[in-house]
Structure prediction request, 291 residues.
Amino acid sequence: MTVINSNTDPEQLTLDVVAEFDASPEQVWGVWEDPRKLERWWGPPGWPAKFTRHEFEVGGQSRYYMTGPEGDKHHGWWRIDVIEGQRHLEFANGLAGDDGEPVPGLAPAGGILELEADGSRTRMLVRSRFVDVEQMERMLGMGMQEGMGMALGQIDELLREAVAA
Amino acid sequence: MLIYNQMVVGLLSDDAFSDEAGADRVFHALADSTRRDILARAIEREQSVSALARHYEISLTAIQKHVTVLERAALVTKNRSGREQLVVANPETLRRANTLLAAFEQLWIDRANRIAEILNEEGETR
Prediction:
């Protein structure tokens, strides 16, 4: 079990996921720093990611896109705000338009990465902080997994039925 | 489609009380037609567990269990009113937020698993 703990706070709109890897913090840092490694895990299955720019330094910008099953391209961006050693990273992650550049007026989500050595293993905390529900829906629409879509659709249908009753 | 199938398998496993992720709790809660019906009634108006139970030909205990599953998925909350427990659907924003967070949670669990695969491959080639 890679993920050992996760916690969602619907009032603060934050998500914490803690995972443990049989690797050093430097190696785990590498899968974030190296764009060729990053794009192997960032996109969900069937939604391969391609990072066309990845400036892994404070103030650095990244541009990427994910290609959906229909060949549709979905663009996104990162901005790196904090890097401390190879242990702590803070970045903004937002949606980009068809030109690959950030959509003006669309606030990014916040991401925090923390790595901690635990013997020969490494503990990774990823915290995501969202601005509002609309932002979350937009971001999920990009690379949305079919199963999730089904569940959300189910709830919306229930609400409609209840209102109509 | 693979992800979808994995989720369906997850829905069918009846371990709502183990330490599963929020996404699983929401999917599990919605996988049962009685629970979807209870949720729809609670959304319509808050009502006691015993009032809900009158609509079904199953025991009050069984209804209570269904309500607990919905509660664990944060789709409803239980409020005490005198001797009665009122089942209240969570305010919509909270519910939507919870469902969306559960979706992101699943996304990050999958990402962590893919990271583990990459690190394992690197470990083998060292």
